[in-house]
Amino acid sequence: MLLYVVSLLVVDTTPFLLTPASSVSRSPALRQAVYNDMEDLEKARSSFEALMKQHGSALAPDQSTSTIPVLTSASRHRKRLEIDLLESLADSDDAIEELVHLWMHENTADDAMVLTAMETQCSDGLIEEEKTLRSMVLENPHWVEPRVRLALLLFYKGQTEQSYQVAIEALRLKPWHFEICHVFVLLSLRQQDMGQALYWARRGLPSLYGKTDSDSVSRRRKGWVQRALQAAHAKLEEAEVATEELRAKQAQPETSSEVWQ
Description:
Elements: H1 2-10, H2 14-17, H3 21-24, H4 28-31, H5 41-53, H6 73-88, H7 95-104, H8 109-118, H9 127-139, H10 145-156, H11 160-173, H12 180-190, H13 194-203, H14 214-251, H15 256-260
Helix pairs in contact: 1-12, 6-7, 6-14, 9-10, 10-11, 10-12, 11-12, 12-13
């Protein structure tokens, strides 16, 4: 597994690195992982930040990102569909491609086409791609896919600290996003922390069956799905509350002082 990941560090395949992580590193070795609770995220984050600080950089989270979006009918439908797809992963891999497609199209079809174009052709130095991805992140702060790709692009360009910042924000927005774990594997390997690399590899989606102990692997897969569903339902509930609060605020009549202002 580690040899496969290390190979990504030394092979110059620029368009390859801008493809979804599911196609970059969807090898059985990476997907067959020991299950760790999603609640361990903060522990891993603290450990990783401490490691980064040893190399002279102080990390600060992206304060511009609100983790609670306001729902529309379309976004509510997509979130419920995502939950259904996550649930189906307990006993099948069929939903993996559908989830990747859903994450790609969480914004507009035009933006999805832009991301797709990046998979086949890149500009010199990835300058245009970085500019486009940063613009997408700013304009659509709750859309995770451009964050995942920006984190991978920044890693490739050697901007380790920025890559980590973008990646951790993506994971905060969508804790069940199994593709972002592969970026953390690469970041950990660059810092020569094999323990963290293994941790993040194990945070990925476990395979349904193993070579020797399929029942154990299947239980890990079901456990991962259970945690993912809990996180997804919690995020949806938060968004529903935020949406209702906004509607209530908008429905309040203006006071006389507000009218004159």
